[in-house]
Amino acid sequence: MADPMRIRAALAGDETTVRVLMSHPMEPGTRKDAAGALIPAHFIKDLEATHNGKTVLKAMFSGSVSQNPFLSFKFKGAAKGDKVVVKWVDNKGDSRTDEAAIA
Amino acid sequence: VTQSQAQAAVDQASFQVKTLEDALKAIGGTPATSDQVSVVSPDIAENGAVVPVGATSKLPNTTEMYLIVEKNPTPLSCGFMIPAGTAADVQTRLKMGQSTNVIAVVKADGKLFSATKETKVTLGGCGG
Amino acid sequence: LNHKDVLAAKPGAGQALYDLPKFGNVSFLHFTDCHAQLTPIHFREPNVNLGVADAVGRPPHIVGEALLKHFKIRPGTAEAHAFTYLNFEKAAKTYGKVGGFAHLATLVKMLKASRPHAMLLDGGDTWQGSATALWTNGQDMVDACKLLGVNAMCPHWEFTLGEQRVKEIIEKDFAGQLDFLAQNVKTNDFGDPVFKPYVIKEMNGVPVAVIGQAFPYTPIANPRYMVPNWEFGIQDENMQKMVDEVRAKGAQAVVVISHNGMDVDIKMASRVTGIDAILGGHTHDGMPAPLVVKNAKGQTLVTNAGSNSKFLGVLDFDVRGGKVQDFRYKLLPVFANLLPADKEMQAYIDKVRAPYKAKLDETLAVSEGLLYRRGNFNGSWDQLIVDALMEVKGADMAFSPGFRWGTTILPGQAITRELMMDQVAITYPTSTLTEMSGETIKTVLEDVCDNLFNPDPYYQQGGDMVRVGGLAYTCDPNAGSGKRISNMMLNGKAIEASKTYKVAGWAPVAEGAKGEPIWDVMEAYFKNHKTIAPRKINTPKLVGMQGNPGMVV
Ligand SMILES: [Mn+2]
Ligand SMILES: [Mn+2]
């Protein structure tokens, strides 16, 4: 199982900025190893962030998003202490869900 | 369709297309250039494997945002669904194999708009 | 008459040069890119410093007589010698050596006597450039700057000592005394600031702010593995934010110490508002007067203060009614013969050099010709380096990075180990021998050339063109990216795209390269060449540069 995400969520005014660092190789499936064999694709393809059960962002990634992907977005309507939940699913069906309290 | 129900026009196959033209086709057509859209990408990438790229849109009802790296083998890099209450302002980090245009395409009120920025990927060295 | 005495013997010469009338109530003293030169040296300014697009003929892209004319400096004077390459050999003998921290210290003290409020600012490239800086891991310069009374600095080559060492110096040596400022360096995970962005101080009751700007392309121009956790970039938006923040905190004068390079500073000054002056470095341009750049809300002075401890910039502001009303600026050359060595600083320098003295002073060869580095395409010192690389490594051709630092050797002068190290003292000195296809060679030249001549300075990376030995080529700086290099020839034969060539080089930015350090290559060469004949400098045939005031050949 992949390492946990590092999530920072901070409220400023009425807007919450969420920043997420995922741990994932993000292999595009087009690279070759030292022996010349194709390295199989292995990347996060879908991500969803929710606040109080409501979707605040959906993202679709390809293998050209950098290794250990970073994501930053902003939404309104949250209070300090609320939880933001982030879930990703990769092309092999692995997934990971992590959360952070809004500071 | 309300914004929270908005479904992406694109599917995983869209991320496999090989040309800018096909990437735009997958998103839904040719966008109009708009000064209300901006793409944030460095002038010179410090590391082609990790290039910070973002997009913002000031257009009302922006529901989808896409980042395209024109010279990548598969140009369409990622897409974002923006529900009501979420800002049309996202940032991520993308791979770039060579100097390229980076294009942000957004869908607002069902229409497509774009902005473009050139990022240089250099071999490095030298310096005073 | 002893040459050393020419200037000193002229009554009032020093006074005429250094007696700056007091002006205003806020003052900054600024030196930059000293490249660890603690002792007086010679330094020849370039005869090729081409500007393209908007920068044609705009300072700093003027050289020689065009520069003198533009800044109204009388030819044949000490100042003309300081600011240009004209009659260099003769003038260098007439006016003597320049720079050195003991002489700089005397000048700083003189100016502080009339301006006790002045802040002393260092534009960076301070901890690298000499043997002793390399051998002491920057410590000789760190202590020299503290003794000189530097208040704040911004960085570039400092980072080639590695993240840990930089942090150690800031936390241990600089704590409470010297501010290391860089608004444009962030962690590359969450983008948190790594360094203090600015400092606010009061001068004669006026709050003033100094903001720091690190060299934005450090992880590209130098090895990224030295700063693996940090991200750079120009960061205009954050600069605007910092300016607004210090203004909101009451700063009535705002200056930026910048290591952007002058063309980037000029563009930044046109985009970011609220900066009174950008005191710039990196491009090593000794500019006698600032450029005044207009922007949406006012104007910004942009200066560049040369290199190798050769100059000290003095900026005086008259701040009244909450803002800068007027200014005076002067870039003072540091003539070692006109400024007696400061005793305390000289004692420190002697002490720090003592353990290395024998090694530094050893003569490796004698040069019959002038050896210098600075210039867009090549210098005779670089030619000597590529000649040595080709011979010692058995290569068809050699590349040497377009570094702008490096001192000058006069005809007949001994090449000591110290003077050799002035050209090559870096923390990634590996020399390399690589098989490269003709196509790759073209790609490399095009890549570096675009970093020098891209019409938009934000796409320039800073640094001069890679110096090439063995390879002849034509360069069209005005052509587009990837189209500037043509007619590549080796020994009269056209380079073939698919053929491979043996290319020697040094200072690789990628990790893991193998080879002896460049100084070993040079010493091996000097063992077989005790007398260095004047170099024939290999430079490209240039297209479209006729009449450009940034070049005299
Ligand atoms: Mn420098
Ligand atoms: Mn520099």
From TrEMBL, chain A:
Where does the Sulphur oxidation protein SoxZ domain lie?
A: 7-100
What Gene3D superfamilies does UniProt report for this protein, alphabetically? Immunoglobulins
Q: Which InterPro entries match?
A: Ig-like_fold (IPR013783), Ig_E-set (IPR014756), SoxZ (IPR030995), SoxZ_dom (IPR014880)
Recorded protein name is Thiosulfate oxidation carrier complex protein SoxZ
Q: Gene of origin?
A: soxZ
